[in-house]
Amino acid sequence: MRVLGIDPGSETTGWGVVEGDARRYAAVDFGTVKARPRERFPARLLKIAAGVEALIERFRPDVCAVEEAFFAVNANTALKLGHVRGVVLLAAERAGVEIAEYAPRLIKQTVVGYGAAEKQQVQEMMRVLLKLKVAPAPFDASDALAVAVTHLHHAARPRQTKERPAPARARLEALLAANPRRRAPR
Q1: Residue 143 appears among annotated catalytic residues
Q2: Which domain does 126 fall in, by range?
Q3: 140 classed as catalytic
Q4: Residue 32 belongs to some domain of the structure
Q5: Catalytic site residue 7?
Q6: Which CATH number belongs to the domain containing residue 96 in this structure?
Q7: Which long-range contacts (CB under 8 A, 24 or more apart) does 130-138 make?
Q8: Other beta carbons within 10 Å of 76
Q9: Tens digit of each residue's pLDDT (9 = 90 or more) over 76-97
Q10: Domain total for the chain?
Q11: Fewer CB within 10 Å: N-end or C-end of the chain?
Q12: Distance of CA 181 to the CA centre of its chain
């Protein structure tokens, strides 16, 4: 499977292409799509969309894995990131590429083993896991590689459906069924 990982950013969007499966994989290529900070924001979005479309055309990925938005302190920053994610998702959808999205904590947990890992730790783990001579740089590119690797690790696992409640909820429902006078908290 070939995965294009994307780390969205309004000035620098990282990308990384990884090929393989959950047990064996290798980096194909990585880099960034850069937009000038002084450029109008819509022009930056256009540059990012065109860059992602070119990457999809060049690498022909099976899946485009994108980092989900995080909660930013600054609402304006979060909105801009949402716009960037939107053009990335649109480019992938337009090309007919399957899309997967992963939370930043899950990505760090998957590649480093710690959901609050620092960017340097993710970068070094990408060097180790992908058997690269030097750590991939900049951080945007190493983060994008981590998104792609995360997809390879989680793609084969069945997603938990909502039909099956979590174990704690199942125990609570069993207790409530045994004592009908109590009601479940919502």
Answers
A1: no
A2: 2-160
A3: yes
A4: yes
A5: yes
A6: 3.30.420.10
A7: 130/18, 130/25, 130/26, 130/27, 131/26, 132/27, 136/16, 136/27, 136/30, 138/12, 138/14, 138/32
A8: 8
A9: 888 999 999 999 999 999 999 9
A10: 1
A11: C
A12: 45
